[in-house]
Amino acid sequence: MNRPPCSAGPFDHIVAPSVSPPPPVLAPTAAPVALAEPQPERRDVAMGTVIAFALCMAVFVLAFNWWLLTSERVGTAYLRDALVRVTEIDRVALDGETQLRATAAASPDRPVRLRAYPVAVDVPADFVANAGLIAIRDRVLHEAADALYRQGVSATLRGGEPAAVGSFTVSAAIDRVLSAVSPGRHRALTFALPVLALAALIGSALVARGRETGSALRLLGLGVAAGAALVVIGTLELWVLLAVIGSAQEEVLAVGVLGLARDTVLLFSRTSLIIALGGVAIAVAGPVLRRMLPGG
């Protein structure tokens, strides 16, 4: 006898959940990388290039100092100082004051000249008659320095007239002191400076090649500072040497010439120190500029 089909139980309608296969495990992907702007290739600068640039700057600084010394304003001031040291302008003017006044009064239309002074300069008679002794001295020094600068020693030294004892000597050192500056030397240095500047520019281009702006400025500033510092160190050593030699001298003329040389060396040293400080400022500005630039 056939059985009727069984009725559905209370749980027969629940369907067992189907088990889906686990999702495939994917290999980890790399995080997205932002595309950076291409940076200039950083190249190591050969030490020899930096040293050559510093030496070139040292030569340029020396030439620049000498160019300043041979300019008209600085050169005539140098010659006035030299004349004070190597001539007896004070004694000559003081001893000849009476004669100067008498000559000016006797010939008011003719220029007056210090007969004992070895530099052939003329002073107007009316000036001698009315000016004080200090003003006459300064006028003579001014005229003599201008004449020495423009005409040279051989053209301004008086020939055939006796010079005051001790005013000038036949020493070649005096001639070199008085002929150290001239318009001809200044013109020659004016043409030489652009050549040296071009060499320094080429050296700076080699030092900065392939480097970003901040790093290039730092290297260039250090090169300028090093070159000028070499001049500062050399001039200070020379100043010490001249001071030692001068302390052993007893002749007034030799002491005066060595003192003038020390003052000139100090002028070179001060100017070079200013250039060296400028190079340090450029070197310090390099890293600051690197931070300020985009991407720095």
Round the Cα radius of gyration to an integer and report it: 41 Å
The helicity comes to 55-70%
Shape: elongated
Question: How many DSSP-defined strands?
Answer: 0
The ordered string of helix (H) and strand (E) elements is: HHHHHHHHHHH
Gap between N and C termini? 97 Å
The tally of helices reads: 11
Query: Which structural category fits the helices and strands?
Result: mainly alpha
Strand content: under 5%
Task: Round the mean pLDDT to the nearest integer and report it.
Answer: 78
Instruction: State the major sheet.
Output: none
What are the segments in which pLDDT stays under 50 over at least 5 consecutive residues?
8-16, 160-170
Note the topology.
Elements: H1 47-69, H2 72-86, H3 89-95, H4 97-106, H5 125-130, H6 133-151, H7 153-156, H8 172-178, H9 183-208, H10 213-247, H11 252-292
List keywords for this structure.
mainly alpha, 65% helix, 11 helices, 296 residues
Q: How would you describe the overall organization of this protein?
A:
With 296 residues, the protein is mostly helical. The chain is built from 11 helices and no strands. It has helices at 47-69, 72-86, 89-95, 97-106, 125-130, 133-151, 153-156, 172-178, 183-208, 213-247, 252-292. Helix 2 (72-86) packs across helix 6 and helix 10 (213-247) packs antiparallel against helix 11 (252-292).
